Amino acid sequence: MNPLERLKIFHRVAELASFSQAAASLGLPKANASIAVQQLETELGTRLLHRTTRRVHLTQDGQVYYERSKDVLSDMDELQTLFVQQDQAGASRLTGRVRIDMSTALARDVVIPRLPELLAAHPLLSVELSSTERRVDLVREGFDCVLRTGQVLDSSLVARPLALLRQVNCASPAYLQAFGMPQNLDDLRGHRLIHFVGNLGAKSAGFEYLDAEGQVQSMAMEGAVTVNNAEAYMAACLAGLGIIQVPMLQPSAHVRSGALVEVLPNFAAPAMPLNLLYANRRNLSLRVRVVMDWLSDIVKAAQLQSPQPQSRP
Question: Which of 168, 194, 179 is nearest to 256 (CA)?
């Protein structure tokens, strides 16, 4: 095992605080990860990690070495792709893995349908795509970048704005047949909202909208169903359980098919920013930059193709 491989293993162990998780993420036996770090510590003449039966964490020297070696790994990634060539078919020879996280709906509706194009252009590239609704830890979990809607709360991350997604209020035709088409905010008192919360047990924000002055307001609404997952949120709406408020990228296919109908277009929730987030490092490898540019292009294309929904009279 060469010194660079040992350094990469050390970084994954430090980020995940676990030899077994680091080994699994790198496709190595746990023993190999442990031996690699031991060899690195022997070469440096210092202990880099405290090991207990329950957890692994950096020593003071380990923290210094970890921070100083970040740029080394980044530079090596950059050097390995510095003279990227193209094969006879014209595909660039980017190699390596890029790990991405995004919402389930964004992965299903926008990214995965276009993924064959990326892999055809870069056949030696591999993509690990995680689909979650939670806020992942980029560094700890080894993600190169994530796509996230909403405000960026972590100041240690770099945010690349991709789009400002118009939000729409949607309901199914079956729901509207049962409860009627709301014409104003007062009508909502006789309607049901499907509540979305980050954690079950948390209080729902209610129905959000912009007032005449452009200020965000919220209105408490009845609703028998609360979910914490975008897939369940959409499924509940399609099942006729109530009204939802979502970025337009997600329900566009359902609007086109007539499975969903926009309601109260003049009382939409504020537009939601969509950002590409990545760790604040001096350099990014070429493969990560290429994938991030591709994500930016397809998200913008999807936004342009989103239909303007027609509300029912």
Answer: 168
Listed in order, strand segments (DSSP E) in 104-248 are: 125-131, 145-149, 157-165, 167-171, 195-196, 207-210, 216-219, 226-227, 244-247
In a domain, 85, yes or no: no
Query: 18 and 55, same structural domain?
Result: yes
Same domain? For 174 and 258 the reply is yes
Q: How many helices (H) and strands (E) does the chain have?
A: 11, 14
Report DSSP state, residue 107: I
Residue 180 CB partners (closer than 8 Å, separation 6+): 187, 190
Question: How far apart, in whole angstroms, are the C-alpha atoms of residue 21 and residue 103?
Answer: 23
Q: Which of 167, 169, 159 is nearest to 272 (CA)?
A: 167
Give the bridge partners for 227, in sequence order: 196
For residues 246 and 215, state if they share a domain.
yes
Paired residues of 86 in beta bridges: 92
Number of domains comprising the chain: 3
Q: pTM, whole model, 2 decimals?
A: 0.68
Interatomic CA distance for residues 253 and 284, integer angstroms = 35
Question: Mean per-residue pLDDT for 44-72?
Answer: 85
Q: What is the reported pLDDT for 84?
A: 58
What pLDDT, in 10s, does the model give residues 61-81? 888 888 778 767 766 766 666
Q: Check whether 187 has a pLDDT greater than 80.
A: yes
Let me know whether 187 and 58 are in one domain.
Answer: no
Residue span of the structural domain in which 68 resides:
3-80
Q: Residues 226-256: pLDDT tens digits?
A: 998 888 999 999 999 999 998 877 567 788 8
User: Which tokens in the block code for residue 162?
Assistant: 């991709």
Strands 195-196 and 96-102: unpaired
Question: What is the C-alpha separation between 185 and 218, in angstroms, rounded?
Answer: 11
Residues 59 and 188 in one domain: no
Q: Give yes or no: residues 158 and 278 share one domain.
A: yes
Query: Do both 14 and 64 map to the same domain?
Result: yes
> Does 174 map to a domain?
yes
